[in-house]
Write a structure and sequence with these properties.
This is DUF6532 domain-containing protein. Pfam families: DUF6532. Residues 5-93 form the DUF6532 domain. It comes from Athelia psychrophila. By secondary structure, the protein is mostly helical. It has helices spanning 17-28, 34-37, 39-42, 48-64, 77-95, 98-117. The longest helix is centred in the last third of the chain and has 20 residues, at 98-117.
Length: 135
């Protein structure tokens, strides 16, 4: 779940645009969402464990299309406990690095700020756009 590298050639860990969009829309996409209901936890940044949950949700969605044909997968703790633990371990590893911890925190703060700024009465589904670049 990387997002390339920065100008110092350091990996942008755990900040893939899909993670950013899911965190912003799921946690903050409407005034009744958890990011607004629990401002003491989500007001200044997306909590690290909430990011872990979002990444595992993305993993489940990818698993549903792993064969090229959609096959529903049950998103339950028993099915994704190991993956969640692996993501939490990755977050803990990032937290041990001064550089990567600061970058991850800045991303989570940006996601929260963006989510709070674009709150609407309903989830922001129509904002998802896909593009290809033909070079």
């Amino acid at each position: 779940m990387h997002n390339g590298k920065d100008s110092n050639d350091q990996t942008n860990n755990l900040t893939h645009p899909a993670v950013a969009e899911l965190c912003t829309n799921f946690y903050y996409g409407a005034s009744s969402r958890i990011g607004h209901e629990y401002k003491e936890l989500f007001g200044s940044e997306v909590p690290p464990l909430a990011v872990a949950l979002a990444i595992v949700v993305i993993k489940c969605c990818l698993d549903e299309w792993a064969t090229g044909t959609h096959t529903s997968k049950s998103f339950q703790a028993d099915s994704y406990r190991i993956q969640y633990g692996d993501v939490v371990d990755s977050i803990n590893t990032v937290a041990t690095s001064t550089i990567h911890c600061a970058k991850f925190r800045a991303a989570r703060r940006e996601w929260a700020s963006n989510g709070i700024a674009r709150v609407s009465a309903a989830p922001v589904v129509q904002e998802f756009r896909f593009q290809v670049h033909i070079d």
